[in-house]
Amino acid sequence: MRWTTIVPAVAMAALVLTFGREINGVLVVVDALILAAAVLAAVHHAEVIAHKVGEPFGSLVLAVAVTVIEVALIISVMISSGPKGATLARDTAFSAMMICCTGIVGACLLTTALRHRTAVFNAEGTGGMLATVAALVTLTMVLPTLTTSAHGPKFSGAQLAFAAVASLTLYGLFVLTQTVRHRDYFLPVTDDGGIVEDDHAEPPSAKETKTSLLLLLISLVSVVGLAKVESPVIERGVQNAGLPHAVVGVVIALLVLLPETLAAVRAARRDRTQTALNLALGSATASIGLTIPAIALASIWVKGPLELGLGPTQIALLVLTVVVSALTIVPGRATLLQGGLHLVIFAAFIFLTISP
Protein backbone atom coordinates (compact mmCIF):
# COMPACT_ATOMS: atom_id res chain seq x y z
CA MET A 1 0.00 0.00 0.00
CA ARG A 2 1.55 3.28 -1.14
CA TRP A 3 0.81 6.69 0.40
CA THR A 4 -1.14 7.64 -2.73
CA THR A 5 -3.55 4.81 -1.94
CA ILE A 6 -3.80 5.47 1.80
CA VAL A 7 -4.23 9.26 1.72
CA PRO A 8 -7.57 9.34 -0.20
CA ALA A 9 -9.08 6.94 2.38
CA VAL A 10 -7.73 9.00 5.28
CA ALA A 11 -9.02 12.22 3.67
CA MET A 12 -12.48 10.74 3.18
CA ALA A 13 -12.54 9.59 6.82
CA ALA A 14 -11.53 13.09 7.95
CA LEU A 15 -14.29 14.56 5.81
CA VAL A 16 -16.91 12.26 7.35
CA LEU A 17 -15.76 13.20 10.87
CA THR A 18 -15.62 16.98 10.35
CA PHE A 19 -18.21 17.83 7.68
CA GLY A 20 -20.94 20.11 8.97
CA ARG A 21 -18.98 20.88 12.14
CA GLU A 22 -17.22 24.10 13.12
CA ILE A 23 -13.59 23.21 13.72
CA ASN A 24 -10.87 25.18 15.48
CA GLY A 25 -7.47 24.84 17.06
CA VAL A 26 -5.56 21.63 16.31
CA LEU A 27 -8.33 20.26 14.06
CA VAL A 28 -7.85 23.17 11.64
CA VAL A 29 -4.16 22.32 11.25
CA VAL A 30 -4.79 18.57 10.95
CA ASP A 31 -7.52 19.09 8.35
CA ALA A 32 -5.27 21.46 6.39
CA LEU A 33 -2.43 18.90 6.34
CA ILE A 34 -4.78 16.12 5.20
CA LEU A 35 -6.20 18.48 2.58
CA ALA A 36 -2.69 19.19 1.23
CA ALA A 37 -1.91 15.46 1.14
CA ALA A 38 -5.18 14.77 -0.72
CA VAL A 39 -4.23 17.40 -3.30
CA LEU A 40 -0.86 15.69 -3.85
CA ALA A 41 -2.59 12.32 -4.18
CA ALA A 42 -5.00 13.81 -6.72
CA VAL A 43 -2.03 15.08 -8.74
CA HIS A 44 -0.44 11.64 -8.76
CA HIS A 45 -3.57 9.79 -9.89
CA ALA A 46 -4.40 12.43 -12.49
CA GLU A 47 -0.90 12.03 -13.93
CA VAL A 48 -1.35 8.25 -14.09
CA ILE A 49 -4.57 8.72 -16.07
CA ALA A 50 -2.97 11.40 -18.23
CA HIS A 51 -0.08 9.05 -19.05
CA LYS A 52 -2.55 6.35 -20.06
CA VAL A 53 -4.66 8.51 -22.38
CA GLY A 54 -1.71 10.61 -23.63
CA GLU A 55 -1.49 14.28 -24.51
CA PRO A 56 -3.43 16.46 -24.98
CA PHE A 57 -6.29 14.41 -23.49
CA GLY A 58 -4.39 14.02 -20.24
CA SER A 59 -4.25 17.76 -19.64
CA LEU A 60 -8.05 17.92 -19.79
CA VAL A 61 -8.45 15.38 -16.97
CA LEU A 62 -7.01 17.61 -14.27
CA ALA A 63 -8.46 20.82 -15.76
CA VAL A 64 -12.03 19.52 -15.61
CA ALA A 65 -11.46 17.97 -12.17
CA VAL A 66 -10.15 21.26 -10.82
CA THR A 67 -13.16 23.10 -12.25
CA VAL A 68 -15.52 20.72 -10.44
CA ILE A 69 -13.78 21.61 -7.18
CA GLU A 70 -13.91 25.33 -7.97
CA VAL A 71 -17.63 25.38 -8.78
CA ALA A 72 -18.52 23.37 -5.68
CA LEU A 73 -16.51 25.69 -3.43
CA ILE A 74 -17.87 28.89 -5.00
CA ILE A 75 -21.49 27.80 -4.64
CA SER A 76 -21.04 26.56 -1.07
CA VAL A 77 -19.24 29.72 0.07
CA MET A 78 -21.75 31.95 -1.77
CA ILE A 79 -24.57 30.30 0.17
CA SER A 80 -22.83 30.80 3.51
CA SER A 81 -21.50 34.34 2.83
CA GLY A 82 -24.82 36.08 2.14
CA PRO A 83 -24.58 39.50 0.41
CA LYS A 84 -20.76 39.44 0.62
CA GLY A 85 -20.78 36.44 -1.73
CA ALA A 86 -22.13 38.50 -4.66
CA THR A 87 -18.65 39.00 -6.13
CA LEU A 88 -17.14 35.66 -5.07
CA ALA A 89 -17.67 33.95 -8.45
CA ARG A 90 -16.02 36.89 -10.24
CA ASP A 91 -13.14 37.09 -7.77
CA THR A 92 -12.46 33.35 -7.90
CA ALA A 93 -12.72 32.98 -11.69
CA PHE A 94 -10.57 36.06 -12.31
CA SER A 95 -8.05 34.90 -9.71
CA ALA A 96 -7.89 31.48 -11.38
CA MET A 97 -7.23 33.13 -14.74
CA MET A 98 -4.47 35.35 -13.33
CA ILE A 99 -2.88 32.49 -11.40
CA CYS A 100 -2.85 30.28 -14.50
CA CYS A 101 -1.73 32.89 -17.05
CA THR A 102 0.87 34.64 -14.88
CA GLY A 103 1.74 32.51 -11.86
CA ILE A 104 1.76 28.98 -13.32
CA VAL A 105 2.97 30.04 -16.79
CA GLY A 106 5.72 32.18 -15.25
CA ALA A 107 6.85 29.41 -12.89
CA CYS A 108 6.92 26.86 -15.72
CA LEU A 109 8.84 29.09 -18.12
CA LEU A 110 11.31 30.01 -15.38
CA THR A 111 11.77 26.35 -14.36
CA THR A 112 12.42 25.20 -17.92
CA ALA A 113 14.70 28.13 -18.74
CA LEU A 114 16.80 27.56 -15.62
CA ARG A 115 17.25 23.85 -16.38
CA HIS A 116 17.32 23.85 -20.18
CA ARG A 117 18.17 27.49 -21.06
CA THR A 118 15.18 27.97 -23.41
CA ALA A 119 11.54 26.87 -23.12
CA VAL A 120 10.21 25.62 -26.47
CA PHE A 121 6.52 25.15 -27.26
CA ASN A 122 4.02 25.18 -30.13
CA ALA A 123 2.89 28.78 -30.71
CA GLU A 124 -0.17 27.72 -32.77
CA GLY A 125 -1.82 25.65 -30.05
CA THR A 126 -0.73 27.88 -27.17
CA GLY A 127 -1.88 31.01 -29.01
CA GLY A 128 -5.28 29.44 -29.58
CA MET A 129 -5.63 28.72 -25.87
CA LEU A 130 -4.68 32.30 -24.95
CA ALA A 131 -7.17 33.71 -27.47
CA THR A 132 -9.91 31.53 -25.97
CA VAL A 133 -9.08 32.69 -22.43
CA ALA A 134 -9.06 36.36 -23.53
CA ALA A 135 -12.42 36.01 -25.28
CA LEU A 136 -13.99 34.19 -22.33
CA VAL A 137 -12.89 36.66 -19.67
CA THR A 138 -13.94 39.64 -21.81
CA LEU A 139 -17.39 38.24 -22.62
CA THR A 140 -18.15 37.16 -19.05
CA MET A 141 -16.33 39.61 -16.76
CA VAL A 142 -15.48 42.80 -18.67
CA LEU A 143 -18.79 43.36 -20.46
CA PRO A 144 -20.90 43.37 -17.23
CA THR A 145 -19.01 46.51 -16.20
CA LEU A 146 -19.96 48.23 -19.48
CA THR A 147 -23.54 47.07 -20.09
CA THR A 148 -26.48 49.23 -19.02
CA SER A 149 -29.44 46.83 -18.83
CA ALA A 150 -28.80 46.09 -15.16
CA HIS A 151 -27.67 48.48 -12.43
CA GLY A 152 -24.06 47.98 -11.35
CA PRO A 153 -21.45 45.54 -12.71
CA LYS A 154 -24.08 42.89 -13.38
CA PHE A 155 -25.66 41.13 -16.34
CA SER A 156 -29.41 41.11 -16.91
CA GLY A 157 -31.01 37.68 -17.01
CA ALA A 158 -30.88 37.48 -20.81
CA GLN A 159 -27.28 38.71 -20.90
CA LEU A 160 -26.21 36.16 -18.30
CA ALA A 161 -27.86 33.37 -20.30
CA PHE A 162 -26.05 34.53 -23.47
CA ALA A 163 -22.71 34.69 -21.63
CA ALA A 164 -23.23 31.14 -20.31
CA VAL A 165 -24.08 29.74 -23.77
CA ALA A 166 -21.16 31.62 -25.37
CA SER A 167 -18.78 30.27 -22.71
CA LEU A 168 -19.89 26.69 -23.25
CA THR A 169 -19.62 27.11 -27.02
CA LEU A 170 -16.08 28.47 -26.83
CA TYR A 171 -15.00 25.76 -24.41
CA GLY A 172 -16.53 23.09 -26.65
CA LEU A 173 -14.66 24.47 -29.67
CA PHE A 174 -11.45 24.54 -27.65
CA VAL A 175 -11.80 20.89 -26.59
CA LEU A 176 -12.68 19.82 -30.15
CA THR A 177 -9.63 21.62 -31.52
CA GLN A 178 -7.29 20.32 -28.83
CA THR A 179 -8.33 16.68 -28.90
CA VAL A 180 -9.61 16.01 -32.43
CA ARG A 181 -9.09 18.56 -35.19
CA HIS A 182 -5.58 19.83 -34.39
CA ARG A 183 -4.24 17.53 -31.69
CA ASP A 184 -0.66 17.94 -32.98
CA TYR A 185 -0.75 21.67 -32.09
CA PHE A 186 -0.85 20.75 -28.39
CA LEU A 187 1.86 18.08 -28.28
CA PRO A 188 5.34 18.79 -26.86
CA VAL A 189 7.90 19.87 -29.46
CA THR A 190 11.68 19.68 -29.78
CA ASP A 191 14.10 22.55 -30.44
CA ASP A 192 13.86 21.95 -34.20
CA GLY A 193 10.04 21.88 -34.19
CA GLY A 194 9.55 18.10 -34.17
CA ILE A 195 6.64 16.59 -32.22
CA VAL A 196 7.37 14.52 -29.11
CA GLU A 197 4.91 11.66 -28.74
CA ASP A 198 4.19 10.04 -25.37
CA ASP A 199 6.49 7.06 -25.83
CA HIS A 200 9.00 7.94 -23.12
CA ALA A 201 7.69 5.39 -20.60
CA GLU A 202 5.49 2.33 -20.49
CA PRO A 203 1.86 3.42 -19.91
CA PRO A 204 0.07 2.04 -16.83
CA SER A 205 -2.12 -1.04 -17.12
CA ALA A 206 -5.89 -0.84 -17.47
CA LYS A 207 -6.30 -2.05 -13.87
CA GLU A 208 -3.91 0.58 -12.52
CA THR A 209 -5.67 3.28 -14.54
CA LYS A 210 -9.10 2.28 -13.21
CA THR A 211 -7.76 2.24 -9.66
CA SER A 212 -6.24 5.70 -10.14
CA LEU A 213 -9.54 6.97 -11.57
CA LEU A 214 -11.42 5.77 -8.49
CA LEU A 215 -8.81 7.20 -6.11
CA LEU A 216 -8.78 10.48 -8.06
CA LEU A 217 -12.55 10.81 -7.60
CA ILE A 218 -12.24 10.04 -3.86
CA SER A 219 -9.40 12.56 -3.54
CA LEU A 220 -11.36 15.27 -5.34
CA VAL A 221 -14.48 14.72 -3.26
CA SER A 222 -12.33 14.87 -0.13
CA VAL A 223 -10.60 18.06 -1.29
CA VAL A 224 -13.95 19.75 -1.99
CA GLY A 225 -15.40 18.66 1.35
CA LEU A 226 -12.36 19.50 3.46
CA ALA A 227 -11.98 22.86 1.71
CA LYS A 228 -15.63 23.55 2.53
CA VAL A 229 -14.88 22.72 6.17
CA GLU A 230 -11.88 25.06 6.10
CA SER A 231 -13.64 27.90 4.23
CA PRO A 232 -15.28 29.50 7.32
CA VAL A 233 -11.84 29.57 8.94
CA ILE A 234 -10.44 31.25 5.82
CA GLU A 235 -13.23 33.84 5.80
CA ARG A 236 -12.75 34.59 9.51
CA GLY A 237 -9.01 34.88 9.02
CA VAL A 238 -9.44 37.31 6.10
CA GLN A 239 -11.95 39.38 8.09
CA ASN A 240 -9.85 39.44 11.26
CA ALA A 241 -6.80 40.51 9.25
CA GLY A 242 -8.77 43.44 7.82
CA LEU A 243 -8.24 42.26 4.23
CA PRO A 244 -10.71 42.80 1.35
CA HIS A 245 -13.25 40.01 0.81
CA ALA A 246 -11.74 39.47 -2.68
CA VAL A 247 -8.83 37.73 -0.91
CA VAL A 248 -11.21 34.82 -0.19
CA GLY A 249 -11.59 34.28 -3.94
CA VAL A 250 -7.80 34.31 -4.36
CA VAL A 251 -7.35 31.75 -1.57
CA ILE A 252 -10.00 29.46 -3.09
CA ALA A 253 -8.38 29.73 -6.53
CA LEU A 254 -4.91 29.05 -5.11
CA LEU A 255 -6.25 26.02 -3.27
CA VAL A 256 -8.08 24.42 -6.18
CA LEU A 257 -5.24 25.14 -8.63
CA LEU A 258 -2.56 23.57 -6.45
CA PRO A 259 -2.83 20.19 -8.29
CA GLU A 260 -2.48 21.95 -11.65
CA THR A 261 0.46 24.00 -10.43
CA LEU A 262 2.37 20.97 -9.17
CA ALA A 263 1.65 18.93 -12.31
CA ALA A 264 2.63 21.81 -14.61
CA VAL A 265 5.93 22.50 -12.80
CA ARG A 266 6.77 18.79 -12.91
CA ALA A 267 6.21 18.80 -16.67
CA ALA A 268 8.39 21.91 -17.00
CA ARG A 269 11.20 20.23 -15.07
CA ARG A 270 11.11 17.42 -17.66
CA ASP A 271 11.44 20.02 -20.46
CA ARG A 272 7.85 19.41 -21.59
CA THR A 273 6.84 23.07 -21.74
CA GLN A 274 3.89 22.45 -24.04
CA THR A 275 2.34 20.01 -21.57
CA ALA A 276 2.86 22.58 -18.79
CA LEU A 277 1.20 25.32 -20.86
CA ASN A 278 -1.65 22.96 -21.78
CA LEU A 279 -2.27 22.49 -18.06
CA ALA A 280 -2.00 26.19 -17.21
CA LEU A 281 -4.00 27.73 -20.06
CA GLY A 282 -6.37 24.77 -20.26
CA SER A 283 -7.24 25.28 -16.60
CA ALA A 284 -7.81 28.99 -17.19
CA THR A 285 -10.14 28.13 -20.08
CA ALA A 286 -12.04 25.56 -18.02
CA SER A 287 -12.18 27.83 -14.95
CA ILE A 288 -14.12 30.45 -16.93
CA GLY A 289 -15.74 28.39 -19.70
CA LEU A 290 -17.31 25.92 -17.27
CA THR A 291 -17.52 27.90 -14.02
CA ILE A 292 -19.54 30.85 -15.35
CA PRO A 293 -22.27 28.65 -16.96
CA ALA A 294 -22.45 26.55 -13.77
CA ILE A 295 -22.78 29.67 -11.60
CA ALA A 296 -25.38 31.12 -14.01
CA LEU A 297 -27.42 27.93 -13.65
CA ALA A 298 -26.96 27.86 -9.88
CA SER A 299 -28.15 31.47 -9.62
CA ILE A 300 -31.67 30.20 -10.38
CA TRP A 301 -31.70 28.49 -6.95
CA VAL A 302 -29.09 30.49 -5.03
CA LYS A 303 -30.81 33.75 -4.17
CA GLY A 304 -28.90 37.00 -4.01
CA PRO A 305 -27.03 39.34 -6.38
CA LEU A 306 -24.39 38.05 -8.79
CA GLU A 307 -21.79 40.64 -9.76
CA LEU A 308 -19.44 39.47 -12.51
CA GLY A 309 -18.06 42.81 -13.73
CA LEU A 310 -14.39 43.57 -13.11
CA GLY A 311 -13.13 46.83 -11.63
CA PRO A 312 -10.71 49.22 -13.38
CA THR A 313 -7.61 47.77 -11.66
CA GLN A 314 -8.58 44.23 -12.62
CA ILE A 315 -9.23 45.24 -16.24
CA ALA A 316 -5.82 46.95 -16.40
CA LEU A 317 -4.14 43.77 -15.10
CA LEU A 318 -6.13 41.71 -17.60
CA VAL A 319 -5.00 43.85 -20.55
CA LEU A 320 -1.38 43.73 -19.38
CA THR A 321 -1.56 39.93 -18.95
CA VAL A 322 -3.04 39.34 -22.42
CA VAL A 323 -0.53 41.63 -24.15
CA VAL A 324 2.52 40.17 -22.37
CA SER A 325 1.24 36.60 -22.87
CA ALA A 326 0.73 37.19 -26.59
CA LEU A 327 4.27 38.56 -26.96
CA THR A 328 5.59 35.55 -25.02
CA ILE A 329 3.75 33.02 -27.17
CA VAL A 330 4.34 34.41 -30.69
CA PRO A 331 8.01 33.32 -30.99
CA GLY A 332 7.29 29.76 -29.77
CA ARG A 333 10.17 29.93 -27.28
CA ALA A 334 10.84 31.80 -24.05
CA THR A 335 13.72 32.62 -21.70
CA LEU A 336 14.17 33.70 -18.10
CA LEU A 337 12.96 37.17 -19.08
CA GLN A 338 9.49 36.00 -20.09
CA GLY A 339 9.18 33.82 -17.00
CA GLY A 340 10.14 36.75 -14.78
CA LEU A 341 7.68 39.09 -16.53
CA HIS A 342 4.75 36.78 -15.86
CA LEU A 343 5.75 36.27 -12.23
CA VAL A 344 6.06 40.02 -11.61
CA ILE A 345 2.55 40.56 -13.02
CA PHE A 346 1.33 37.76 -10.76
CA ALA A 347 2.95 39.44 -7.76
CA ALA A 348 1.28 42.75 -8.74
CA PHE A 349 -2.10 40.97 -8.88
CA ILE A 350 -1.65 39.49 -5.39
CA PHE A 351 -0.40 42.80 -3.94
CA LEU A 352 -3.22 44.88 -5.45
CA THR A 353 -5.82 42.37 -4.25
CA ILE A 354 -4.53 42.71 -0.70
CA SER A 355 -3.99 46.47 -1.00
CA PRO A 356 -6.47 47.70 -3.66
TrEMBL record:
Keyword Membrane found: yes
Keywords: Membrane, Transmembrane, Transmembrane helix
Residues covered by the Sodium/calcium exchanger membrane region domain: 27-179, 212-354
Keyword hit for Repressor: no
Lipid bilayer topology: Multi-pass membrane protein
Protein location: Membrane
Pfam family, one: Na_Ca_ex
Residues annotated as transmembrane: 30-50, 57-81, 93-114, 126-146, 158-176, 213-234, 246-265, 277-302, 308-329, 336-354
Main location: membrane
Protein name in UniProt: Ionic transporter y4hA
Biological source species: Actinocorallia longicatena
